[in-house]
């Protein structure tokens, strides 16, 4: 949310201490990254059992909820990895996150470029990327709260997907209309950014035990972030200012994500019937 504000501020720092403004990007963001990394070493716990900031009751709840193995962690073997992929839900989860990441990275990389086609200068362009991300931030908090209260994920993922598709539809079909195009940018940001956290939460909550969670989180994040490579080549300068190819690519993968998330939800419903009969916990929907 603060990227546009930070970029517009850094653009005015040219000449301070004899440095160009682009150097200050690396200096300021590098310092922040180092400080956060040092803080994380002291404040982020590896496992619930090792956390010092949880009460005994909270620690017991987290261990029970995450299905922590009583025998503790053990080395993960190739057989574990191969067995992990015998469940088609895991492949679907990777596809969902991959498809979700593409509009996220596309907006992150190219929002200033797209906004600039509306006729703004450099600083005004950066400032106009703030309202869409601020709206996305607010929607993320609202959806996180209600999805947790309702114990449901898929309906919120579907709603975010609808917002993204609606925004892309506006951007693909409407040109030379500032208000409509800017509304489309806001919808894409709100849909893409609000879907990401819920998709990750939904999948990780349905993983059980140290082995499955370790493989599952590594699989989802590593495979999903390949979408960043696709996003990098989606919006090419030769396609400006309409960027029909870029919007079409993002639209296609958003629809792929919608289909994959629907199949994942159906698979969870089917497996829940078996899990209930066997006395196991239900998968999150």
Question: What does this protein look like?
Answer:
There is one protein chain. With 285 residues, the protein is mostly helical. Helices cover 74% and strands 0% of the residues. The chain contains twelve helices and no strands. The longest helix has 34 residues, at 244-277. The chain is globular. It starts with a helix and ends in an 8-residue tail after the last helix.
Structural class: mainly alpha
Helix content: over 70%
**Cα-atom radius of gyration:** 21 Å
How many angstroms separate the termini?
Answer: 29 Å
- What share of the residues does DSSP label as strand, in percent? under 5%
Mean pLDDT metric: 87
**DSSP helical segment count:** 12
**What kind of sheet is the major sheet?**
none
Q: What are its keywords?
A:
285 residues; globular; 12 helices; mainly alpha
Explain briefly what this protein structure is.
Helices cover 74% and strands 0% of the residues. It has twelve helices and no strands.
Secondary-structure blueprint of this entry?
Blueprint: H1 3-11, H2 21-43, H3 56-66, H4 78-84, H5 88-116, H6 122-127, H7 130-150, H8 154-173, H9 178-205, H10 209-224, H11 227-232, H12 244-277
Helix pairs in contact: 5-9, 5-10, 5-12, 7-9, 8-9, 8-12
């Amino acid at each position: 949310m603060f990227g546009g504000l930070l970029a517009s501020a850094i653009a005015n720092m040219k000449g301070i201490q004899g440095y160009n403004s682009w150097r200050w990007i690396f200096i300021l963001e590098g310092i922040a990254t180092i400080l956060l990394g040092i803080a994380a070493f002291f404040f982020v716990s590896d496992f619930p059992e090792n956390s010092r900031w949880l009460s005994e009751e909270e620690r017991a709840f987290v261990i029970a909820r995450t299905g922590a193995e009583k025998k503790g962690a053990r080395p993960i073997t190739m057989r574990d990895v191969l067995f992990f992929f015998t469940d088609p839900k895991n492949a679907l989860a990777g596809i969902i996150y991959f498809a979700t990441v593409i509009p996220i990275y596309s907006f992150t990389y190219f929002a200033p470029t797209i906004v600039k086609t509306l006729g703004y200068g450099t600083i005004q362009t950066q400032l106009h990327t703030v309202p869409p991300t601020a709206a996305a931030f607010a929607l993320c908090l609202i959806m996180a709260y209600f999805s947790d209260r309702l114990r449901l994920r898929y309906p919120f993922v579907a709603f975010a997907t609808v917002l993204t598709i609606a925004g892309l539809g506006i951007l693909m079909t409407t040109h030379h209309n500032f208000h409509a195009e800017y509304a489309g940018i806001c919808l894409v940001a709100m849909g893409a950014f609000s879907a990401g956290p819920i998709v990750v939460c939904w999948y990780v909550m349905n993983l059980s035990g140290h082995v499955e969670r370790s493989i599952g989180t590594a699989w989802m994040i590593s495979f999903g972030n390949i979408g960043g490579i696709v996003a990098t080549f989606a919006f090419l300068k030769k396609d400006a200012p309409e960027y029909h190819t870029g919007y079409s690519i993002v639209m296609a993968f958003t629809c792929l994500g919608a289909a994959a998330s629907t199949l994942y939800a159906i698979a969870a419903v089917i497996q829940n019937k078996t899990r209930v009969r066997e006395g196991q916990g239900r998968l999150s929907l």
